[in-house]
Amino acid sequence: MKHHILAALIASVFTLAACDQKAPEKPADTVIPASSEQKTADTQTPQGELPAIDAVMTHAPQVPPPVNRDYPAKVIVKMEVLEKVMKMADGVDYKYWTFGGQVPGQFIRVREGDQVEVQFSNHPTSTVPHNVDFHAVTGPGGGAEATFTAPGHTSTFSFKALQPGLYIYHCATAPVGMHIANGMYGLILVEPKEGLPKVDKEFYVVQGDFYTKGKYGEPGLQPFDMEKAIKEQPDYVVFNGHVGSIAGDNALKAKVGESVRIFVGNGGPNLVSSFHVIGEIFDKVYVEGGKLINENIQTTLVPAGGAAIVDFKLDVPGSFTLVDHSIFRAFNKGALGQLKVEGPENKEIYSGKMSDTVYQPEGGTIQTVPLTASEAAQVAAGPAKASNKEEQIKLGKTVYNANCMACHGVEGKGVEGAFPPLAGSDYLQADPKRGIHAILKGVSGKITVNGKEYNSVMPAMALNDEDAANVLTYVLNSFGNGGGQITAADVAKERAAK
Ligand SMILES: [Cu+2]
User: Fold this and answer.
1) DSSP H helical segments within 190-337, as ranges?
2) Is residue 170 annotated as involved in ligand binding?
3) For residues 56 and 65, is the Cβ–Cβ distance under 8 A?
4) How far is the CA of 305 from the centre of ligand 1 (A)?
5) Do the annotations mark residue 179 as ligand-binding?
6) How far is the CA of 132 from the centre of ligand 1 (A)?
7) Ligand 1 centre and the CA of 29: distance in Å?
8) For residue range 130-151, what is the model confidence (pLDDT) as tens digits?
9) What are the E-state strand segments in 256-298?
10) How far is the CA of 369 from the centre of ligand 1 (A)?
């Protein structure tokens, strides 16, 4: 409470100074009342006075313990961005972009009035810059501008948690939709000063939609599909980053008689969620994660880029299924989880026989697609190699979408002032070998493309000779460019030359 004394001191000094002024020289309407001055001083407490605490952060479905503090603190949040191939479904892999190595990012729990210092690191192996926009922040971009971070760098910024609630955070680097679609979101809870009512178990669940080249269940490493994302036609709609993340052996667990709270978020990027737990009624819903409490709710809407808190008590045992009640998403796209509850039956509340496997047959069977012998051979043989220019262009497009589009944009249009265009680039046309150098060594320093100056950094791309040749051939023959060809041998030669 030291800052109150300080505030009073500042206020009284101001009053003294004001008294010193000769009244006629000071027009009345510019006199600031001492009380408003005091208020300003109070909200601008220097951070140095607050005790510093490292945030306890947890991976889903775990939630950090309640804050349990009756004073504000400076809370240090360390976030690390990691781009990482992980399982989307059985036999299906996806190159996720993550906060902290998993989807969703870690749960952050602070108290209303806390000063939150975010130390935001982008791992050196990342292929693109990233940042974070906290919906709990009052300030430009929710911190996005302050945290825009190239691979191998750390940015720091601080914000005051002014308003209690459950908030999404997400990456907001261009193209924003792609970063979110790759899994860059999580939840931050700003507890009200008095805390939330105590419950026995808390869980962390975030829905997200994913867009892959292949259909649902098509095996292999699936690249992101921009076209499907723009059309809002996801192949996967899942809880906590992948199919089955909170089902079967990974199911959430609780006991009869316990009270349960689920912090539900929706990262999107596109779909809103009709969040429902089959066989339960939410006693309380903190609507949209805010202060308004609704009671006795069957299904609650969780907007993309939004959240909700649901509380309910467990009266009977069984398996309760979490779904997005846009129901094809649950049974055909993965938006299905389980809460397994153990304990004594209560025949009055529920007389019938609850089974663990009621929804399993439908949910389970469609999650793997059996391979024919020739498909299996194809997977074993690895990626196809191009034998002519046309095939190079075709394969190069996939490489472009997965590795270059994030910065150079759809149709190679680039982003003015940040990422130069590859469409009609006079810089590249002048010497297509520059493309090879760009991929192998990266590009930095001032360059001029189509009359516009760029002074930024492109990281070297970890592509093999084939992929590098294919993507450059694709670029040279797309976006209205004049054609040309780069072969794997050309790339190998440049690689050896350095
Ligand atoms: Cu990002």
Assistant:
1) 226-231, 327-332
2) yes
3) yes
4) 15
5) yes
6) 8
7) 49
8) 999 999 999 999 999 999 999 9
9) 259-268, 273-278, 282-286, 293-297
10) 31
Residue count (the chain): 498
- Ligand 1 centroid to Cα of residue 134, in Å, is 13
Domains assigned to the chain: 52-195 (2.60.40.420), 205-342 (2.60.40.420), 384-496 (1.10.760.10)
Backbone angles phi, psi at 382, to 5 degrees: 80, -170
- Running DSSP on this structure, what letter comes out for residue 102? B
**β-strand partners of 167:** 188
Exposed / middle / buried, residue 337 (Cβ in 10 Å: 0-12, 13-18, 19+): buried
Determine the pLDDT at residue 240.
98
Rounded average pLDDT over 384-398: 91
Q: Which two tokens stand for residue 295?
A: 């009671």
Q: Which tokens hold the place of 176?
A: 């924003």
Q: Which amino acid is residue 171, in one-letter code?
A: C
297 C-alpha to ligand 1 centroid (Å): 35
Cα–Cα distance for residue pair 39/8, rounded to 1 Å:
10
Whether residue 185 contacts residue 108, with contact meaning beta carbons closer than 8 Å, is answered with no
What is the pLDDT at residue 497? Answer: 87
Distance CA 45, CA 24 (A): 34
36 phi and psi angles, rounded to 5 deg: -75, -35
Ligand 1 centroid from CA 222, angstroms: 19
For residue 438, give the H/E element and its range: helix 433-441
Helices 433-441, 465-476: crossing angle, 10 deg rounding:
140
Q: Is 184 annotated as a binding residue?
A: yes
